Amino acid sequence: MEKYVDPTASIGEGTTIGRFTVVGSRVIIGAACTIGNCAVIHDGTVIGDRVRIDDGAVVGKLPMKASISATTDGASLSPAVIGNDCLVGASAVVYAGCELGDHTLVADLASVRENVTIGDRTIVGRGVTVENHCSIGRYCKLESECYITAYSTLEDRVFVAPGVSTSNDNFIGRTEERFKHFKGVTVRRGGRIGAGATILPGRTVGADAIVAAGSVLTKDAPPGKIVMGVPARVVRDVPKEQLLDEQGWDDV
């Protein structure tokens, strides 16, 4: 059997499904989609029109809960929802309870966990991990191999460079007290984080602020300021011509 499409699935006009792909029960796939080879679309997933899902991708996967997991709660999840005109790369994994806005790209080998929302036209780069209970805005760019920790919020037009690491546990996995204090990071509208920077738990990158490459953010970055160093300190204002409202973009 070259592929399996459950009889209860709804497949839109003009959609093609590759070899050895599995489409589960009650799945809805819109019109003019392209589903690659060896993909798995789990039960109940909803996929919009003109979506491309590449070889080996998994959409609607249920999370695994280890006995010592601190952030996976085991609650029931709604099906994954993929908006119109999205791209999901080869071997990417989009979990149940995740919602992607229109024109979103999830690149090869990326992982988007449960209870995550991602806004329209956001790019989730190759090998990026977005952990559970995160909110990502519109027109964001999460570049290759960055890590967005659980319980984080990124507003619209946020830029996160390759290799950025974020964290949510000041207790580093020790003592029961840590369960009361999990807190991800917040990046306000137009905030930017340079390559290889580290953002500590609960810190906020203000609107239009920049965290320079290689910095360690131990205190909030004020809006419109450039911070750099280990630990990061304010060094100057973001140039006026770089501010988000100066770009002439219709959506800002």
Structural commentary:
The chain has strands at residues 4-5, 10-11, 16-17, 22-23, 28-29, 34-35, 40-41, 46-47, 52-53, 58-61, 81-82, 87-88, 93-95, 98-100, 105-106, 111-112, 116-118, 123-124, 129-130, 134-136, 141-142, 147-148, 153-154, 159-160, 165-166, 186-187, 192-193, 198-199, 204-205, 210-211, 216-217, 225-228, 233-237. It is mainly β and 252 residues long. It starts with a strand and ends in a 15-residue tail after the last strand.
CATH-defined topology of the largest domain: UDP N-Acetylglucosamine Acyltransferase, domain 1
Q: Which structural class do the helices and strands define?
A: mainly beta
For the record, the CATH architecture of the largest domain stands as 3 Solenoid
What is the count of β-strands?
33
Domain unit count: 2
Radius of gyration over all CA atoms, rounded: 19 Å
- Percentage of residues assigned to helices: under 10%
Considering the protein shown, what is the CATH homologous superfamily of the largest domain?
Hexapeptide repeat proteins
Please report the distance between the alpha carbons of the first and last residues: 49 Å
Biggest sheet features: 12 strands, mixed
What is the 3D form?
globular
Q: Can you tell me the residue ranges where pLDDT is under 50 for at least 5 consecutive residues?
A: none
Total helical segments: 0
